[in-house]
Write a structure and sequence with these properties.
The protein has helices spanning 2-9, 13-43, 51-65, 81-88, 122-140, 143-146, 149-166, 172-176, 180-188; strands at 75-79, 102-105, 110-114. By secondary structure, the protein is mainly α. Helix 5 (122-140) crosses helix 7 and helix 7 (149-166) packs antiparallel against helix 9 (180-188). InterPro entries: DUF6647.
Length: 191
């Protein structure tokens, strides 16, 4: 046994240093992966109280103004602007992207709203309504109709505009950054 110990002591120092570096690097990688996972989980937050109730009221309004059946409510999460941009435009430089107020993920039936979402803001509520329209569409339309994304977007914008007008917002198109020509182009788009 004394011989094994002598062999270990006679090991070149660079081998020991290499082993220490490999262990250190491995630990560092594990820590980075754990921190990345935790940061991603922290960026998505549960919404403030009352948001599900507001979504229920807005869903009732959508059901009254469309022929869609009211589906089970989607999950609603708050997400940072960077998280929304990555969700909507993965791989793009975020500096060049527009500000995103909300997004709907049809695969998970989840609406994501910006973390600065204000339940007292009529404009912010209109963005929740817009995403709820997409939820209604994906739950009610046939697959070929769901492939017509521009048409679905135009319908969601028109519903959002109608709701804003009904809530006494006079310059709704300007506030949303859309115009009639753009809406007509979306509606006429084959895909």
């Amino acid at each position: 046994m004394a011989r094994d110990t002598d062999d270990e002591r006679s090991r070149p120092p660079e081998d020991c240093h290499r082993a220490i570096r490999v262990r250190t690097l491995s630990l560092w990688l594990v820590l980075v992966l754990v921190n990345t996972t935790l940061a991603s989980a922290e960026s998505r937050k549960q919404p403030q109280g009352g948001l599900q109730e507001l979504a229920g009221e807005l869903s009732g309004w959508i059901a009254l103004h469309t022929s869609y059946l009211e589906p089970a409510p989607p999950e609603i999460l708050l997400e940072t602007q960077a998280g929304l941009q990555e969700l909507c435009f993965p791989g793009f430089t975020h500096d060049l992207l527009p500000r995103i107020r909300g997004a709907y993920d049809a695969r998970s039936n989840t609406i994501y709203l910006n973390t600065d979402f204000d339940t007292d803001s009529v404009l912010d509520l209109s963005y929740l309504l817009h995403e709820l329209v997409h939820h209604f569409q994906t739950q009610n339309l046939s697959l070929p109709s769901r492939r017509q994304k521009p048409v679905m977007e135009a319908e969601a914008l028109r519903m959002q505009l109608l709701w804003l007008v009904e809530n006494d917002v006079t310059d709704a198109m300007t506030k949303l950054g859309v115009d009639e020509r753009t809406l007509r182009m979306l509606e006429a788009s084959p895909r």
